[in-house]
Amino acid sequence: MTEIPEIEREKETGPTVPKKLNRAVKKLLKAGEEPVLIAPALLHSQASETMLAIARMGMLEKTLGYLVTTRKNVHFVRPGFAWDSMQTLPLEKIDDVEYVAEFHTNTLKVKLGERAEKIVFYDDLDGIRFYQYIKSKQWMDKSTF
């Protein structure tokens, strides 16, 4: 019996929604945005050095934020006890995405015109999936994912 690779399984069923994100994902679904990628990640500008170290080590039991990508937007969600903090970035405004030239940091830089934001992923494979999704402009093609 051949096992379906994890990436192929996600294409068929959609990404697994962590329990912490149920509230945020329900709001996105009500707004007509279905998640295509969900990954534990932090915005570099909004994280302390301790938070960044936790993310770089991939300590998933201490996930402090998520990157939720839909066909329209990228949402940075920090789940909270009573409410969630969510920042949204339209995909069409992303000019480029590139790897940060640092050793083993799981960091990507998203460029928006003159500005840029670093995203630190807990798992390097999640960063690779996000990079490929943006670079190949899969969000423009309705047949993928």
Can you describe what's shown?
With 145 residues, this protein is an alpha+beta fold. It has one domain: PH-domain like (Roll). The protein has four helices and seven strands; from the N terminus they run H-H-E-H-E-E-E-E-E-E-H. The chain has a seven-stranded antiparallel β-sheet, with helices on both faces. It starts with 5 loop residues before the first helix and ends in a 10-residue tail after the last helix.
Core attributes:
28% strand, single chain, 145 residues, 4 helices, PH-domain like, disordered N terminus, alpha+beta, 7 strands
**CATH topological fold name:** PH-domain like
Classification by helices and strands: alpha+beta
* SSE series: HHEHEEEEEEH
Number of domains: 1
Mean pLDDT: 80
Q: Which strand order does the major sheet show? A: 4-3-2-1-7-6-5
Give the structure's gist in a few sentences.
This protein has 145 residues and is α+β, with helices and mostly antiparallel strands. The chain has one domain: PH-domain like.
List the helices and strands and how they pair.
Layout: H1 6-13, H2 22-30, E1 37-43, H3 49-56, E2 66-69, E3 73-78, E4 85-90, E5 96-99, E6 107-112, E7 115-121, H4 124-135
Antiparallel strand pairs: 1-2, 1-7, 2-3, 3-4, 5-6, 6-7
